[in-house]
Amino acid sequence: MIIDDAKVGIDPANDSLFEMGRKADLSSAEMAAAAVAVGMSVAGVAMVILAVLDPEPTSKLGLLIASGAVLALTGGLSAMQILARTKPPTIKVTGHGFEVAWA
Q1: Contacts of 70 (CB under 8 A, 6+ apart)
Q2: What distance in Å separates the CA atoms of residue 6 and residue 16, rounded to the nearest whole number?
């Protein structure tokens, strides 16, 4: 759920992530940094999934899962920090999912 509380004209139904970043006046460096952080998070999630689905027994399964979780968490938090610039978001876990709000 994305709410345009800054009134910059962001419409997730019709805009791509790049268009929303441009409307929010993000610089090219901020968009690149956010893309790298999101990519890091996706790589971490993929690492955890592949470690669990690997049919061969491995002695390093815990290490792979922990490393993937660290990548996923730090990538996601870095992306939020970059996109929030200086004010960190408020994150709540509800029955409907995650709610991220910048107050």
Answers
A1: 44
A2: 18
Q: Could you tell me the pTM of the whole model?
A: 0.61
Strands (E) across 17-89 are located at: none
Which are the contacts of 48, defined by CB distance < 8 A and separation ≥ 6?
Answer: 64, 65, 68, 69, 72
Could you give the count of Cα atoms lying within 13 Å of 31 in the half-sphere of its Cβ?
A: 13
**Residue 2, pLDDT score:** 66
51 within 8 A of 69, measured Cβ to Cβ: no
Q: How far is CA 39 from the centre of its chain?
A: 8
Residues 40, 75 contacting (CB under 8 angstroms)? yes
